[in-house]
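Appendix B. Chain record.
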Amino acid sequence: MHTMWKGSISFGLVNIPIKLHAATEDKDIKLRQLHKECHSPIKYEKKCPVCDVEVNQEEIVKAYEYVKGKFVVLEEEDLEKLKKENEDKAVEIVDFVKMEQIDPIYFDRSYYMSPGDGGSKAYSLLRKALVESEKVGIAKLIIRSKEQMAVLRVFENTLVMETIHYPDEVRNALDVPNIPSEDKVTKKEIDTAILLIDQLTANFEPEKYTDEYRSALLELIELKRDGKEYVTSAKKEAATNVTDLMAALQASIDQTKQPKQAAKKKRTSAKTKGKKEAL
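Structure tokens predicted for this chain:
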């Protein structure tokens, strides 16, 4: 697994050399844009609209737009100096908290952490302490010139660092329009909804969830490449904006019962067949 960052974890006077590895990967299918006439890839150029010329990388400077059309230009030397002043290759744990106190809206990206040279014992110590205390570490670090907040936790015997958003990066939920202020639902509707939730409740098994669109797109690409025709499957019945909540809830419950009943009939049929063969 590729090492993307090297540094150390520090909490108190304990220092653990570590390596960072991306824990997830983007499996989106990247589609190129081609010229329809000749199927050549489209080229994107950096061009100044005022000078009407193509601009080279060395002619480009970075700037902050503080009001529309007005910029503060930042010299590369200033940015490098600022980067070096803050680029301490350490993950500093500033607090330990209960995981349930952190809402998932704060989470961003996941990274596996492996011990660096001579760090195995201290790595094991932190891992064991987090498990037994049932807490996670809140840390700060610099990645790619940006100060990040992060959560350190244990996942399948491996330390994981989850970068999290700062509070001012999470938009206020009160600004979301058209949220009903009161729950204008009846007790019967609530009970039926909870019954539906119970019917659909299962253990979380991530392996059973797949990206159906990506699979279909890959199949289409393969068929197109082989010059074969692509046949689409029957569409699922689209959900409608049902105003009769009770009817919709009851229909949903009946729908969840059907696969279970079919599976039960299948098992009963198999048992009956087995008894007949035994006779």
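Further analysis of this model is presented in Appendix C.
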